[in-house]
TrEMBL record:
Keywords: Gluconeogenesis, Glycolysis, Isomerase
Pfam family, one: GPI
Protein name: glucose-6-phosphate isomerase
Pathway(s): Carbohydrate degradation; glycolysis; D-glyceraldehyde 3-phosphate and glycerone phosphate from D-glucose: step 2/4
Family that this chain belongs to: Belongs to the archaeal-type GPI family.
Naturally occurring in which organism (per UniProt): Methanolobus mangrovi
Length: 243
């Protein structure tokens, strides 16, 4: 069982994203049609080091996942996740946030904010091992591995929602594709803003620092309340949404 992940002495089996799960969102459709249905990336969900951690994580409405994206090319496009948005928090007009940390390799996080049918902000954050990347409410997100090395990343997220894939599928991918020649605007989006490049940041207000293993916040999960009740913690997102 070569795909199992050992986390805290527990073995986890992944959900596997196959190439042809991504048919709508791959840039080079001609290349895609000639390809076998290979495994692209591995999603290990709801991890914990022990039962007591798991109880705390569930009580706080959270989930800790690890995703492994081996290096690959999708024709002349770098391997990436399918991409999704999050639904609104019940009773709010704000959607759930998510927090990533690169554990190994390098990630390019593409975040895009939709307002109705338009994308009004596109952010790219390039992150290396230890770096944190926050997905604010309202932003869809895609992770791209351009590094030629295995990318292993973790995320904390609210456990009570299902991701929304259709808005990205129906426009054949994110607002930009990352090709060997650089970022290419997706023509199906019409007008999109230029990319804002941001650096990975610390979030001292939540006790989160690049370089510190973010799983350890399991001992103080109230600090992640911004993932479950983003409406109560808008300051933390402001550094990214209006720098
Ligand atoms: O759902 P996608 O777009 O394939 O992206 C996968 C990622 O999303 C998550 O489900 C969390 O948003 C992770 O488990 C995984 O990293």
């Amino acid at each position: 069982m070569g795909n199992e992940l050992n986390f805290g002495g527990n073995l986890y089996r992944p959900d596997i994203r196959m190439l042809h799960d991504m048919d709508e969102v791959v840039y080079n459709q001609e290349w895609l049609r000639s390809q076998e249905n290979i495994e692209l990336y591995y999603m290990y969900r709801d991890l914990s080091r022990n039962e007591s951690d798991h109880k705390k994580i569930v009580e706080h409405g959270l989930r800790y996942d690890i995703t492994i994206i081996p290096p690959a090319m999708l024709g002349d496009e770098y391997v990436k996740t399918a991409g999704h948005y999050h639904p609104p928090v019940p009773g709010q007009d704000l959607s759930y946030a998510e927090l990533y940390q690169v554990l190994e390799g390098e990630a390019t996080y593409l975040l895009q904010k939709a307002e109705g049918d338009r994308v009004v902000d596109v952010i790219v954050c390039e992150a290396k091992a230890g770096d944190l990347a926050l997905v604010p409410p309202g932003y869809g997100h895609i992770t791209i591995n351009t590094s030629g090395k295995r990318l292993k990343m973790a995320n904390w997220v609210c456990r009570d929602f299902a991701s929304l894939y259709d808005p990205i599928k129906k426009l054949f991918g994110g607002a930009y594709y990352l090709l060997t020649g650089g970022f290419e605007k997706n023509p199906d989006y019409g007008e999109v803003p230029d990319i804002r490049f941001i650096k990975p940041m610390d979030y001292p207000e939540a006790g989160l620092f690049c370089g510190n293993d973010m799983y350890e916040i399991v001992n103080d999960l109230n600090k992640l309340d911004f993932l479950v009740h983003p409406q109560d913690h808008m300051d933390i997102f402001g550094k990214i949404t209006s720098p």
